[in-house]
Amino acid sequence: xxxxxxxxxxxxxxxxxxxxxxxxxxxxxxxxxxxxxxxxxxxxxxxxxxxxxxxxxxxxxxxxxxxxxxxxxxxxxxxxxxxxxxxxxxxxxxxxxxxxxxxxxxxxxxxxxxxxxxxxxxxxxxxxxxxxxxxxxxxxxxxxxxxxxxxxxxxxxxxxxxxxxxxxxxxxxxxxxxxxxxxxxxxxxxxxxxxxxxxxxxxxxxxxxxxxxxxxxxxxxxxxxxxxxxxxxxxxxxxxxxxxxxxxxxxxxxxxxxxxxxxxxxxxxxxxxxxxxxxxxxxxxxxxxxxxxxxxxxxxxxxxxxxxxxxxxxxxxxxxxxxxxxxxxxxxxxxxxxxxxxxxxxxxx
Length: 349
Ligand code: MRU
Description:
By secondary structure, the chain is an alpha/beta fold. The protein folds into 2 domains: 11-140, translation initiation factor eif-2b, domain 1 (Four Helix Bundle (Hemerythrin (Met), subunit A)), CATH 1.20.120; 141-347, Rossmann fold (3-Layer(aba) Sandwich), CATH 3.40.50. It has helices spanning 38-46, 53-70, 76-90, 98-113, 118-148, 174-184, 200-211, 224-229, 255-264, 296-299, 340-347; strands spanning 11-14, 17-21, 32-35, 156-159, 189-193, 216-219, 235-238, 242-244, 249-252, 269-272, 278-279, 300-301, 304-305, 318-321, 328-331, 334-336. The strands form 4 sheets. It has a 7-stranded mixed sheet. Strand 8 (242-244) and strand 9 (249-252) form a beta hairpin. 5-S-methyl-1-O-phosphono-5-thio-D-ribulose is lined by residues 51-54, 97, 161, 163, 167-168, 173, 200, 238-241, 251-252, 317.
């Protein structure tokens, strides 16, 4: 299989700090920002300068290194105690994507298992963060290769939100599948849902696919069933923020609606995600915490109100697609199929 070369690197550890693309500026600017303190990393995750489940996982791992650097003058025992507290705090910067908790936990294991002095622990945390970064790209390429096998020739693939290079360290999960398929079949194309309220589909997915020369059509969220009925969508692939042990999947709000429409029109609906997005500690999607975000995201676009003042607002950031609607979960270990309780348990053996 030909390898697709994506130009995008979303986040990277550089010497003593974290460098990331500032995703709040899209589509107007493509600019890197350097994050140099743990608290700034917490804010970068919370305010979505960095976003997307795998990317915020790596950001969390970087954040632990930043806190470690700040605490370096403490005595070893005190350093460890304070750093573990800071790591737990970092993991609360966003609640739904489990990759954040997963990556912070990986850093906590380094801290707890180390026999080194303070400087040694900091170095080990740095090396572990860089390892997680590199692994993320490798995992996405594997997801891409497995996913490409189920993409029909000349397919139009619908995606929701952004599960691309910009939601990961690079390459992407759902868009990794697109990239891998496109490498061998340049006749495939993407339909990208706008993804209100924060418009990750419009602002981010169209930007990164266009940068990489992949034909893309932007549609608004309500249009998907119209195009499905017309036979213009061959498959759906989205990412995930947390997958329960039974396959129920939390992803960006609106994903559930797309999955229902796909089922009705007999169109395969796939989730593409690394195993680090699967939370085997929870039985079903009912246990996934759903982030409630600021009301301004719904009431305003680009600082301008789009509704009557004082109207009631609810703004959940994610929804949960029940496992019955999912044709397969594309992971680095292959495509998991129903019965998900069994295939997920098997993937973790
Ligand atoms: O709120 P966001 O932009 O962080 O939400 C992102 C998504 O929902 C993505 O689809 C998900 O994190 C998968 S990213 C590979």
